[in-house]
Amino acid sequence: MKTIRMGITVLIFSCAVASACAAVPTCTVASVCAAASACAAADPSGVWKFEFEGAQGRKLESTLTLKLDGGRLTGVIDNRGGKVKISDAKFEGDRVSFNVVHNIRRREFVTSYSGRLDGDTIKGTVSTRDRDGRMRSREWEAKRPSE
To answer: Residue 53, CB half-sphere, CA atoms under 13 Å: how many?
Structure first.
């Protein structure tokens, strides 16, 4: 089996799948191809749906629209509170993270989302400080609806 020297691994270094390959001086052609296809498949762009249980057990539905353009992740979250642009958004390997800033009664509340992209699912945690300043976290799962 032929190997490709370190120079080629630089092309795929930004993909988390290639990290094991980048740690050694050579990679096989098969491992380069596998890492490259995993990079191409991992894209958080699109519309995502998720919900949380609110006060009195009511479900609060949200729509998240993400766009990955040249390594820059942007997006908007839309729910009953209105549309809000996300900030500090990152997509690295299969990890998605971003913040949503809400101003409620002259106070700023930052909600931080982080998760792992796996096909049409992002699963992770959402964290925010309550009005007393305590950090609260819970599980978060968003699904990309099939078209």
So the answer is: 4
* Domains, the chain: 3-41 (no CATH), 46-143 (2.40.128.30)
Please report which residue ranges of the chain form alpha helices under DSSP H. 6-12, 19-22, 29-41
- H-only helix segments in 26-147: 29-41
Up-side HSE of residue 130: CA atoms within 13 Å toward CB?
Answer: 6
Q: Within 13 A of 42's CA, how many CA atoms are on the CB side?
A: 23
Q: Give 77-90 as a DSSP string.
A: EEETTEEEEEEEEE
Q: Find which of 7-11, 22-26, 140-144 is predicted with most confidence, using mean pLDDT.
A: 140-144
* pLDDT reported for residue 10: 30
The residues near 50 (Cβ < 8 Å, ≥ 6 apart) are: 61, 62, 64, 140, 141, 142, 143
- Supply 145's token pair: 């609806």
- Locate the DSSP E strands across the chain: 3-5, 26-28, 46-53, 59-69, 72-79, 82-92, 95-104, 107-118, 121-129, 135-143
